[in-house]
Amino acid sequence: MTKRRLAEIALPALSIIGFIAVWQIVVEVRGIPPIYLPAPSAIAVALAQMARDGSLWINLAATISRIFAGFAVAAICGVALGLLMGRSRIVAQIADPWLAALYPLPKISLIPLMIIWLGTGETYNIVMSAISAFFPIVLSTYAGVQQVDRGLVLAARDLGASPRQIQAKVILPAAVPHIFNGLQLGMGVTIILVVAAEMIGGSDQTGMGYLLINAGQVMDTDKVFASLVVMAVVGAVIIKLQRFIDRKAAPWAVHAGPHQD
Amino acid sequence: MFRTFTAAVLLLAAFHASPAAANDTIHVGEGPFISGGPYFIARDKGYFAKLGLDVDTRIFMDGALAVPAMVSGELDITLVTLSAGLFNSIAKGAPMAIFLDRGNNRTGRGGSAINVSNAMYAAGVTGPADLAKLKGKKFGITALGSINQYEAALALQKAGLDPRTDVQWISGASQPDLVKMLGRDLVDAADLAWQFGSMAQDQKLGPRIMDGGTVNKDGQVAAYAVRKDFAEKHHDAAVRFAMAIMYAAREFNAAAGAPADHPDTVALLAKATTQGNVGLLTSFAPHWTATSEDGLPSTDAILRMQDYWVDYFRLATEKVPAAQLFDLSIAKEARERLDRDHPFGN
Amino acid sequence: MLLASRFIRSDDVRVEMDVRVEAVSKVWNVAGASPVTALDTVHHRFPSGRFSCLLGPSGCGKSTLAQIVGGLETPSTGRISIFEPASGRSAPPGAASIMMWQGLNLFPWRSVVDNVAFGLEVAGVGRAERHERARAMLATVGLTGFDKHLPRQLSGGMRQRVALARALIMERPILLMDEPFAALDAQTKIVMQEELLRIFEASRKTVLFVTHAIDEAILLGDEVVVMTARPGRIKEVIPIDLPRPRSFDLVNTKAFGALFQRVFHLIREEVTKAMAKPTAGAAA
Q1: Lower Cβ count inside 10 Å, N or C end of chain B?
Q2: pTM for the full model?
Q3: C-beta atoms surrounding C184 within 10 Å
Q4: What share of chain B is helix, strand, coil (3-state, %, to 5)?
Q5: Which of B306, B317, B320, B324 to mutate to test the interface with A (most CBs of A within 10 A)?
Q6: What ipTM score was computed for the predicted complex, to two decimals?
């Protein structure tokens, strides 16, 4: 492992450890009551308890499955619609005002409506997850398609590609950097919305959001923080994983690799 | 000329004398609930003002939200409902203590009820003994660890169930929402404030089957808490607050017992709690909860509740010792001064 | 390193194609401004096997003309006829020609070998076969061993060769080149020009080569078609009868110098005119 690679891993890890250490010391030395800020040690204890009695695993599994299920739905629908909009001006003209109007709407505000329509079961959770991811994905895909270098399309046509082949072999790959960008944005928003939906529609009784709201109701701040830490770690892992997959799938889209000239 | 000069000097002296009568300001957290009746009476009838207090009222729709506001210093005195959340907060260092009664079940004027859905009623859940039939069903409460859940859990236990595992607790909805959920069978039962139980029954959304106060007979429903540093620095103001509340409590309890005889009081209470709807307010009198005139909350009942949440239900994590939880000196001093000085004339 | 003989396949039946440009004009409608006439009534015949250089100032419509011949743009008036002189059999514009673009237009996400094989891929050729043919073509342009590289990992000159290989592999009788060497440094440009000369020697396709560089046009072409500033018309056609095979040494000869002067005078006033005009939305 090169020195630089070592530094890339060690420095963030050290900063996190350092932050936790300072946090612990400050809370102890200054005698901060846990109601304001629990010590990392207390959070760790709460976390261990949640792991031991199983509540951590059950709820984490529920949340993660909802995130991915909703994201998958949104990714397929969003990319498909984005490509279609890029291909057909009519579709783009019809879809554009709807997207422009609905995108800025905070999806959290739709939660009460969704609960009325769908109840608080899995459908509701997955729909909330999908709705939030859908917009950045479709808009990024459409933007990606629009900015495809027309020269590449002409070259492909000149080489004998049919319109369908151009869609699949030129437009889609050329739009990939933008699509991946949209997928990353979508994933980030999905994680937030799934937890929020679980918090508000909590009667379904599972999920990290459900854990959060219950611990919050009884002011169990240790458990609240522990749940937040878990979500932060999960979120970071998912995003990093996504970036890794993006890099492997489309190395040309990510800036890496040697440059000779 | 000399007379004008004297008059001017006297006027100036009079103005200089005014600062001695400057009022103390207290930031108080309250809610639009009838249990806070004595406060509204004390405020609107000028009892606070008479004792030299300016009260700055902040209304919270959900009493649980008042606790963080106190912790942050925004409130000096606030209503607190007795809940697992309150015990957790104080155990974790919230700098407050319970110092004054604000609602108990001792006189049988409990302000809460248990309602069931029409379907459950039809299935035979018509009284306290039938609660066993709620096994596996959904029980609606406003929050986990709340006084509502406490009463409901005790009632279920009495009927032979284990409230920790035998029902599914649906929490997080407000009382009006719980009423609606009852009507739509989204919950099979709910523990509600009396007025909402009446509403549910009247609108045919689910009949009331028992008075929550019967399982929590000497129970404490709510109290006033004071921030510890406020109690130290402004002890006298806290005592005067208690005096005004305790004096108003007498009128409150009287009006609860015979609302027709106290129309002004009822009108002002309705304005603060039922948006002026006097008829609604009188309809569920005397179930307004009662505030004792000696101002003392039932410490035994409160400690029993804490044990319940920590040992049995495990919703609270550690027990707060009584010395940290209560400061009863204020209420006792207030009672002495009321009896000795009669500041309100009687 | 160029093995020009590899261009001639053993069973080669060289297809010859004439291109006839008849009264072609092209008008661009620019939103919010008056229409721009890129080409105004162009007539010319490009016989098979001839290397024609289109020379003119920026905005004179030479790239547009090449694209119209290639079937990538439609003329506003007039038409393109492409036909085999021996049999009179005609082909639609596009099918018989292949373009090497000014910006190369390599697919950045495809490896070198996949770029070169693209035309075969969309034609349905199997993977093994098209990769083999692509590697062979790459060897011909001197790019062995870079199969898996991405275009951005190559130098400018190497990318040129990939673009050239991608075009030549299609074996179409007409080769259109739109200022392909404009972005290269001087040394690489010379190398590429000599390679093109050798390729042309071996294959004798019909070539339309668009350029703004006088020396390049004379070095490479059998004729130089000098175009006017916008709206583009053919000002004059100068035959270049320098002997083939050619090499860069030609540039220092007296004959070259004389031709240069002649073309230079023709084009000078057009360049001045072009500089005075605002640019249109479309490419020259």
Answers
A1: N
A2: 0.74
A3: 18
A4: 50, 15, 35
A5: B317
A6: 0.85
